[in-house]
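MODEL INPUT / OUTPUT PAIR
PAIR INDEX: 1
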Amino acid sequence: MRAGNRGRFGKHRIRQTTGHRVITRPSPPRPSTQCDARRSVDINRGRRSVETLTRPEASRTGVPVRILALCVGLAAVAGCGPKAAAPTAGTPSSAPQGVKRFIFITNGDDPFWDACNAGLVEGARRFGLEERGLRAVMEKNNGTAQGQIEKLRQYGSQSDIAGVAISVIQADNAAIVEEMKNLAARGVKIITVDGDVNRDAFRDARPYYIGTDNIVGGRLLGRAARAILAARGRTSGGYVQFAGFTDNDNARARMNGFREAVGESYTEVDRMPDEMDLTRARDNVRTALVNHPGLAALVGIWAYNAPAIAEVMEERGARSTAEKMLTAVTFDAQAAALERMAEGKIDAMVVQNPFEMGVQTVRLLRAMHEADDATVAEMFPNRGQPDGDLLTTGLRLIVPDTDPLVKPEDIDIDGYEYLPLSRFREWLAQYGLSSS
């Protein structure tokens, strides 16, 4: 996702990926400090493609209603306040005395984040957070800018927050940027992951970004779409791109990259935001088909757009005959999208590596917290140069097992892995994942 840097096209290269399985045990609960019952997810979770899965366990400490009522009634005698049940150690709302937390704020709630969550677990194990008195915790945002703003403000009043990684939901939102800067002024380490701020306006809000080079990802999808359209005899036509927010940094970069790489023979007729509303996502596809008859392709930019596109195309018979065959290309690999590809309803998908995003998030925040400049320099060897503050985590192009219309030789972009659907599903199964 390199705004202002168009990346490069080059010889096709397939990157091999390896991994291993680890198992972690959940940490024991800490002594309770107040009458409270909460539920949370505790996560003791490089550029390298070592991808490992551990499943974070949800811990729940609750107090029955009758006991709470009795506790309130006898508080003056029994001292319930300081001795009642409290959140388990490492919950998003608290940590054991002396333990510092790294918080990962998502943009919304999507299966995409499950793989990132697993990467945080592995990163915590690999980089020794527990023995350093540190934890990593994922908090899922509600899909709004205000949700992220409120979380950032909340962390400013909590002394145990050592670092925050955030997938910024709106790149141009000055209020999010202000709260990021407020936390940094208090000594909290701040980075962006997956979704960045507008780099032209707000680059100083964070020192580093980890995630996909989204403009290259968009180009990869654009090249795939061009090959598929040519194979179907469509040498021109219009397309519509769908995303949660069209002013989000990663969405904007992907859409721009797609437009650049698919070529001038094909015309972008609309970009349609849905604000992460799944019903609206489907309605947008219906609207596009009505308003723009004769479209050549539909392009899904966020994970849930893929099944929405496939569902509506089936509903409207948009792939019922060779003459009506509408091309569908998408980003990310929800389980539902993978099933739709298996059914022949999605032609190609570009898949990110959220697991590695999680691993590298822990690595970087740990290094920043401990002033380990050698590790930071290893991760960002070009610091101080244009785009030297970006660490990219790789891309895959997933195609149907049977007669894919795009081949490796059709793609003149560097640094991605070409995988048939069945092989990608084997990789997911190896790590216990259903999506990526």
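PAIR INDEX: 2
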Amino acid sequence: MDCSNSLTNEDLEPKQNADNILASYDVSDLTENSDVDSVGKLKHEIQLLSIKVFEKDIELKNMRAEAAAHRQYLSEHVGSPIKSELSANVKPLVPDPEHEVLRLEGEKLRRFLMEVGSEENSKSSITQTEYEFLKSQDGSQLSLVDLVKLRLFESVKRTQQRNHVISNSPPMTMDAEAQTKANLKTPANEDCAALERQLSLVKQNNDYLCKQVSLLKSKLEVCEQRSRETTEELQKAEAERASAVERSVAAEKLQQILQDQLKQLQSFSSTALPVTFIEHLRAASDSRRDHEEVNLRREVDALRSERDTLKRRLETSELETKRLRDDLTSVRLTNDRLTAGVSGRQPDVFAKTQIFSLETQLSAACAARNDALRQVERVTEKFELASKALYELDAERKVQVSQLEAKLEVASHKLSTYERLEAELDKAIENCAERCYEDMLPSDVLEQPAMLLQVGNFSNSSGGPLLPTLASRRLEHCIQLSRRLAESEKARLSLKSENDDMKKELQAVKEEAKRISDHLSTIEKPTSYLASALVSRDSRIAELLLDKRKLEVKMRRLYDCTKDLLAERKAMLADLHEVFKQHPHDRIVDKDPAYHDENRPPVKLNLPRKVSGQAH
């Protein structure tokens, strides 16, 4: 039992070091960001589960030490036959077939001892035939129960023989009885007495063995229950790990989107690069807002210049109207004086004509003035709408800038938290390995090199690592980054296609807006413009119809010419066919080399024409 206690203390030292490291590792400041917190909690729980598995291994070692102590105790207090049987059958408590066989043997031995204790000593538990069969077998091949039955049968048989001798002998005196007892002290009787003492010891240890078996059963049940709980916890941890991985992937996607937006904003800025991300964002938004404000101000300046021009035209028309009214008043006064001076004289025709022309000019000036006023009102309305749009656009840009700043702050905070968590994890793993190596004594290092390797590398009994190393975790992170890069590339392609579709839709909307604006500008023009537009349209339609008729005539002529050419071709083919029929020996001229000579004179044959046509 001292050996088991020492082994327990030595095995629990790495556990205490790991608990101290995990107690010193604080992640309370990570609760603000749910995605990063879940990843940190998952890694922390994985470390705790790994340490629990390490504790299970230590408990198994303790149970093995206890079994060894029980085996040593039995070897010290039990005879050689039972000692050999127990040393051959008592093994570490492991869930295997040998352990089950040992448990069944213990149950049989317990029931047999209970039966022997309840019966009389003069009765045997086996027959003579069974005794002879067991006697003929090898003692190393017999089980513990068979050996106990064999020794018990021999003891009972010797006791019966002794009782039979005593009962058949005559009564003796004290000296004779002493002489008889002295004669009975033979080696066989001494062996029987030793066997009886061994049997009494076995009966005394029966309860102890039963208690130990029940205790081992209870420990086995507790270990199985703990293993089931550990399995359930591992399944829960795997589920939480999967959910945490999904959340981390979503966070990485959001971070990648923010980085892409940041790169776009950096490409928009033409000045020197700002110091922080927020300054990048502000510079890009300010440049965009300044550009839009410059465009709107140009439009406002154009509207103002147009308004000033219309005002000048209005003032000019008002001055002209005033001058015409003064001229009309002077003409009327002159006419009154003339009519007053020359009574009975006919009115002056020239004065009336001048008055009529002045009135006509006055009405035209009034109409021009009214048109100018209407144009001034229209330009004023456009100016107000442009100012309102400028203010709304400025407000929207400010809201967007504030939202992007908030998102950027959250993303930067998450990134810093993740980097801090990663650095702390690396530091905790390295410190844990170093402390476990330092806590091992030189004697332990020399005596238990496998234990040193197991504790120093945090490896389990199968050789696999309980905690991930830096290299494996970096490799896994690189694989995750490559997968996320592929997903982001796929998302980029989809966004690019959506952008192209939106550009096409925008172009269509621009064309529709242009058409509507042309239509509205046409509606605002006077009726005479519409009449002239209709006349020009009718003239264009008439020209198109005339061109269409000309093209139809040309096409008809071309069709007739094509028909004539086809007829001529058919006639020529028929003529050639008849010539070949009349002169069959001319078909081999192609094989003669002189036939392909360029200086050869052409063959002139008067071929009869079947069809004679003339192209139009």
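PAIR 2 NOTE: The CA atoms of residues 88 and 465 lie 35 Å apart.
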